Amino acid sequence: MSLRKAAVITAGSWGTGLASVLADNDFAVTLYTRTQAQADEINDSRRNGKYTGDFVLSERITATASMEEALSGAGVVLFVSPSHAMRQVARQARPYVLASATVIHATKGFEPETMKRMTTVLAEELPHLDPSRLVVLSGPSHAEEVVQRRPTTVVVAADCLEAAEQAQDVLINPYFRVYTNPDVIGVEVGGALKNIIALGAGLSDGLGFGDNAKAALLTRGLAEIARLGASMGGHALTFSGLAGVGDLVVTCTSQHSRNWRAGYLLGQGRPLDEVLETMGMVVEGVKTTKTAYALSKQYEVSMPITEQLHEVLFAGKEPQQAVGHLMGRGRTHENEELADAFGGKWIL
Ligand SMILES: NC(=O)c1ccc[n+]([C@@H]2O[C@H](COP(=O)([O-])OP(=O)(O)OC[C@H]3O[C@@H](n4cnc5c(N)ncnc54)[C@H](O)[C@@H]3O)[C@@H](O)[C@H]2O)c1
Ligand SMILES: O=P(O)(O)OC[C@H](O)CO
């Protein structure tokens, strides 16, 4: 059987997870690695040790440190680099990405310097592509479970329905269920912002708080995500879907989560630099906290959890003090819109 060709850029944990899905879906996959040593390891041992441990990669996956070789003839291209590296990686890829390719990104974050979403960065760096066909993939999906073919659901969004359906078509299989969604902004913003709340949930667990605190963080965190997301142009319903609640739940409750684990170590009193060093993998929530804090000011949206986490991460505030601040704020309604909706019915 002649296999269709897909390229996955770059070869971290999620890149490896998605390469495995594509290999299972009858693609010959080329995985772009940052170093020749990593490509050699993958090709020789069928393992990507640093990122997916002992998981044995499909024979259909080949690694290369050459961007040209990775992208040559690829009808499907997946960008999965950390958000801070997306522009550089896309620029490097530009000469080799076919104009006809289905281009999907699965990165959760904003460009730190510009606060731009990843489809914006890709549209700027790949000007020969139709921007309405750029697809974002998001949702509750830890690579550790995807490589073991455990049931997982995700969402793909694009302005162009046909492009979203093409992405759905190449990725869906019996253990990887892919839904389409028209809300590119909502899906990208939801996927990025949940990492902040996951850091907070880890911090809460590291401090020894209980399930009540975590449920509060999830619920009030979702309110913040939806407020900023809607101000940026996302649709409220997206935040109650896979790219909102779904991803928030998995990232705040799973020990696979890099963001939760980083928060947990911070909660145990470890300094941020040391935590990031220990993790060895990207913890998107740290840079995203800085961006979301700035966006909350720009859009004049109240984001108290993000604000307190920002103080803890970047201004040396003690986590206990941040919790005291959150719990001791002035009294408010749970939801202003709901209070307004019931306005006539309150007994005054
Ligand atoms: N790991 C998961 O389960 C998972 C699931 C869904 C989404 N994501 C998202 O996918 C993205 C990637 O996460 P990950 O967990 O695979 O990260 P990772 O740390 O496992 O891997 C990152 C990869 O990017 C490469 N890289 C880092 N900096 C680079 C640079 N400057 N230039 C080129 N390459 C560079 C690294 O070599 C590595 O191959 C993140 O936005 C993350 O939020 C991850
Ligand atoms: O491991 P994390 O915290 O980077 O989260 C990975 C995915 O976004 C979970 O859906």
From TrEMBL:
EC number: 1.1.1.94
Gene3D superfamilies: N-(1-d-carboxylethyl)-l-norvaline Dehydrogenase, domain 2, NAD(P)-binding Rossmann-like Domain
Keyword annotations: Cytoplasm, Lipid biosynthesis, Lipid metabolism, NAD, NADP, Nucleotide-binding, Oxidoreductase, Phospholipid biosynthesis, Phospholipid metabolism
Domain Glycerol-3-phosphate dehydrogenase NAD-dependent C-terminal: 183-323
This protein's record includes keyword NADP: yes
Reaction catalyzed: sn-glycerol 3-phosphate + NADP(+) = dihydroxyacetone phosphate + NADPH + H(+); sn-glycerol 3-phosphate + NAD(+) = dihydroxyacetone phosphate + NADH + H(+)
One Pfam family, short name: NAD_Gly3P_dh_N
Pathway annotation: Membrane lipid metabolism; glycerophospholipid metabolism
Residue positions binding NADPH: 13-14, 34, 51, 108, 143, 258, 282, 284
Glycerol-3-phosphate dehydrogenase NAD-dependent N-terminal domain span: 6-162
Gene Ontology molecular function terms on file: glycerol-3-phosphate dehydrogenase [NAD(P)+] activity
Binding positions for sn-glycerol 3-phosphate per the UniProt entry: 108, 139, 141, 194, 247, 257-259
Compartments it resides in: Cytoplasm
Residues at the catalytic site: 194
Statement: the UniProt record of this protein carries the keyword Transmembrane: no
Family: Belongs to the NAD-dependent glycerol-3-phosphate dehydrogenase family.
Function of the protein: Catalyzes the reduction of the glycolytic intermediate dihydroxyacetone phosphate (DHAP) to sn-glycerol 3-phosphate (G3P), the key precursor for phospholipid synthesis.
PANTHER family: GLYCEROL-3-PHOSPHATE DEHYDROGENASE (PTHR11728), GLYCEROL-3-PHOSPHATE DEHYDROGENASE [NAD(+)] 2, CHLOROPLASTIC (PTHR11728:SF1)
Protein's recorded name: Glycerol-3-phosphate dehydrogenase [NAD(P)+]
Lineage: Bacteria, Bacillati, Bacillota, Bacilli, Bacillales
